[in-house]
């Protein structure tokens, strides 16, 4: 069979209006008028290419039945959701079935197809497709319980930052504590911020991200804090703790060679931030109290550019204020450590057609979001809190974040 990848179409299934077909996905910047797919692991565009049979639809039906593509349209077009589902299947084969030579690149050649045929013959179904918000893993339940405790605490004890937020008339994509939502039908991302009050010119990737989706919990790592080196100026932007709404989108939409899938504030005007007004290279309650030369509080600002994006393999903090996720490793739904370092690129330079590098664990994050999003859900709730909040749950505790980061960085 011919190799299948982004843009492949079955016979007579090529869309008559490619721009309209891509419209639900191409909603940002340079993508708006594109009639080709963005293959962001290879920094190139892929055209719609018609084949001679029904290979793509057959693949989509397999991915649906195996539990990787609940949103399958069976349209015979190898689009973004199909690519994400293929990568998740390849990652599952690599990690859960221990075929370590598999590279989750979203390309279906003879190697990947041999595993597809094996699964068909054995009538296999992935564990990832067997859980739901109503039938969750224990870890999912534990995290949801902690989120509800956080809402109760910060509604009644908001602290200086959230008190300031509560006093604002408009908060854009940021949400006041009393209005935080934790519906199991939604996608939730938890950010665990550490060492934000410690002065540092070069901030490390030393924070955690927990993705709660389809009744499962996956753990990633990176940074919630801005690096002075990336910001290139004083007054770095820090996203305030609390809940924010983020939509599916793209990062670096103004630079054609760097466009890739990411999350953006649901409200185009942005999310609420506090800058490091006192220039101590830390984020503290003092920053909300700094006044300008006229005696007015500088306070919070709304910022449209605080995305959730990739930070290489985690060696450097590629954040000027965004929330960034490393590609080196992650913990799966069973809390098992997964090493992506053999194929994860350190930066844009490693993403080319020839070297088969990918964004590693970061792709697992975005692919889970794209594939397992409930019907018509195109955004998630991001709740950012401090490490000390983990002490409220007997399931986690004060050492949870540091111990988990040691595991993730050990590969």
How does this model look, in words?
It holds the Pfam family PG_binding_1. It contains nine helices and 18 strands. It is α+β, with helices and mostly antiparallel strands. The protein has two domains: about 120 residues, no CATH class; about 270 residues, no CATH class. The strands form five sheets. Strands 5, 6, 7, 8, 10, 11, 14, 15 and 18 form a nine-stranded mixed β-sheet that branches. A three-stranded antiparallel β-sheet has the order 9-12-13, with no helix packed on it. β16 and β17 form a beta hairpin. The longest helix has 19 residues. The mean pLDDT is about 95.
**Nearest-integer average pLDDT:** 95
Question: Fraction of residues in helices?
Answer: 10-25%
What pattern of helices and strands is seen along the backbone?
Answer: EHEEEHHHHHEEEEHEEEEEEEEEHEH
Number of domains: 2
The shape, in one word, is: globular
| Number of distinct helices | 9
Q: Largest sheet at a glance?
A: 9 strands, mixed
Instruction: List how many beta strands DSSP finds.
Output: 18
Taking pLDDT < 50 over at least 5 consecutive residues as the criterion, the unreliable ranges are none
């Amino acid at each position: 069979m011919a190799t299948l990848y982004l843009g492949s179409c079955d016979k007579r299934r090529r869309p008559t209006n490619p721009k309209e077909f891509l419209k639900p996905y191409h909603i940002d910047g340079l993508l708006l008028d594109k009639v080709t797919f963005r293959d962001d692991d290879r920094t190139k565009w892929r055209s719609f290419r018609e084949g001679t049979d029904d290979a793509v639809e057959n693949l989509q039906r397999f991915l649906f039945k195996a539990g990787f593509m609940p949103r399958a349209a069976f349209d015979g077009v190898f689009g973004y959701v199909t690519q994400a589902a293929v990568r998740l299947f390849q990652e599952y084969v690599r990690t859960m079935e221990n075929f370590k030579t598999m590279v989750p690149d979203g390309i279906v050649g003879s190697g990947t197809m041999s595993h597809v045929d094996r699964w068909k013959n054995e009538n296999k179904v992935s564990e990832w497709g067997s859980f739901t918000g109503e039938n969750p893993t224990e870890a999912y339940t534990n995290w949801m319980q902690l989120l509800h405790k956080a809402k109760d605490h910060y509604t009644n004890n908001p602290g200086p930052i959230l008190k300031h937020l509560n006093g604002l008339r408009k908060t854009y994509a940021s949400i006041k504590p009393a209005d935080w939502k934790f519906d199991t039908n939604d996608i939730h991302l938890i950010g665990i911020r550490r060492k934000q009050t410690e002065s540092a010119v070069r901030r490390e990737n030393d924070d955690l991200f927990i993705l709660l989706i389809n009744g499962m919990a996956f753990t990633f790592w990176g940074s919630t804090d801005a690096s002075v080196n990336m910001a290139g100026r004083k007054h770095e932007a820090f996203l305030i703790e609390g809940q924010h709404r983020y939509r599916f989108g793209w990062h670096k939409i103004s630079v054609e060679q760097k466009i890739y899938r990411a999350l953006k504030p649901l409200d185009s005007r942005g999310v609420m931030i506090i800058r490091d007004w006192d220039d101590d290279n830390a984020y503290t309650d003092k920053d909300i109290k700094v006044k300008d030369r006229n005696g007015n509080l500088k306070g919070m600002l709304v910022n449209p550019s605080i995305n959730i994006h990739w930070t290489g393999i985690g060696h450097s903090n590629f954040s000027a204020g965004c929330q960034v996720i490393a590609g080196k490793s992650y913990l799966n739904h069973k809390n098992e450590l997964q090493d992506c370092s053999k194929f994860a690129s350190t930066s844009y330079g490693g993403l080319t057609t020839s070297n088969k590098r990918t964004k590693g664990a970061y792709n697992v994050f975005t692919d889970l979001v794209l594939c397992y999003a409930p019907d018509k859900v195109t955004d998630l709730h991001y709740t950012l809190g401090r490490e000390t909040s983990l002490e409220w749950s007997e399931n986690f505790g004060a050492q949870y974040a540091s111990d988990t980061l040691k595991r993730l960085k050990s590969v």
